Amino acid sequence: MQQVATLETVGRAIQKLEAEGVVNPSGRAVMAITGGSMATVLKLMKERRANIGTQPVVAKELPGYAQDTLLKLMNQSYQEGVTEAKNEIDKAQANETEALDALEAEDGKIKHLTDELTESQKQADQDRQEAEKAGAEAAGRIRELEQTVAGLQTERKQLIEAGEIARTTAAESKVQVDRADKASAKAESRVRELEDEVKELRNHLAAAEQRAAVAETHSKDMDNHLTEIKSQVTKEQEERTSLGKELKTALAEASRAQSEASKIEKAAQARIATLEKEAAVAAEKTASLTAQLSELKLQLTVTTKPENQK
User: Comparing 183 with 294, which gets the higher pLDDT?
Assistant: First the structure.
């Protein structure tokens, strides 16, 4: 059963990768740890970034007159940096998702074309083998019939010669002559039949050779189609490499935006620290002035009291 990614597991996976030195972990790297589908992991990563981006930054407790100014300054600076980094990361993530979808579609298309080409090549090979087999059988049969015809022609010639000899020897040999004539006529009829069969077989052989030529032409067409598909695959691989470079560039820009947001946050914190120090100095001055005022009031009371007694 496939493991299902959650917001908690995605957060832990991102923290683990960042602890290992990975800047802006990709969806694939997170999915390798959490499991689940790429769509779910990307959705949870986006939700986590949104949650981080909406958390308010609370300044340290300051004197009353400086606290509102510090909170406003720090939150404004941090929110601007976080919003910019979030937009860049969302854009990079969208590019990554689009690239993954395009790669999956191209892989399916290549697989379909490869399967179709393999099936066509198998059929062409089968047609060529059948044509070659039929041609070989027809050629063998023709050779056999040619040998038979040659034997019958020799036998016919011998019978004709024997008939001529019988006609010249004596009348009592007429029966043998008639038999020789009949055998010769029969042999001649058989020769014509065999010649017709040879002619038919030659036609079959020509048809088989034509089918073999067609199969060879089809095989060449398949080879050309394979070459075209290989060229298309090479082009798509180049486009895939280009998409990967664009994705890396987008991720690098998102990382720079995140780094700038971090610098802005540090600058805001440094400004807060400075204002805290100034507030502390102002508080000390206020306390000193309050003490001096109390001392002056006391001196004034001591000075005016004898006069009242007079």
Answer: 294
Q: What tokens does 172 get? A: 């009592």
Closest CA to 17 of 39, 37, 1, 41: 41
Share of the chain above pLDDT 70, in %: 73
Could you tell me which CATH number the domain at 56-301 has?
1.10.287.2610
Q: How far apart are CA 47 and CA 39, in angstroms?
A: 12
Is residue 202 a contact partner of residue 142, using CB atoms and an 8 Å limit? yes
User: What CA–CA distance (Å, rounded) separates 164 from 273?
Assistant: 139
5 secondary structure, DSSP code: P
| Helix locations, the chain, DSSP H | 7-19, 27-34, 38-54, 64-169, 174-309
Q: Give Cα separations from 187 to 73, 113, 147, 175 (angstroms).
A: 121, 61, 14, 18
Ordered by start, the domain boundaries in the chain are 1-55, 56-301
pLDDT digits over 259-285, tens only? 775 776 677 678 767 877 886 887 788
Question: What confidence tens digit (pLDDT) does each residue in 100-131 have?
Answer: 676 677 767 767 877 887 887 888 788 888 87
Q: State the pTM of this model.
A: 0.32
The pair phi, psi for residue 4, each rounded to 5°, is: -105, 125
Burial class (CB in 10 A: 0-12, 13-18, 19+), 176: middle
Closest CA to 96 of 256, 238, 104: 104
Q: Which two tokens stand for residue 301?
A: 């009371």
Q: Count the neighbouring beta carbons within 10 Å of the beta carbon of residue 81.
A: 22
Give the CA angle between residues 152, 157, 161 to the nearest 5°: 145
Burial of 198 (0-12, 13-18, 19+ CB in 10 A): middle
State how far the Cα of 91 lies from the Cα of 258, in Å rounded to an integer.
13
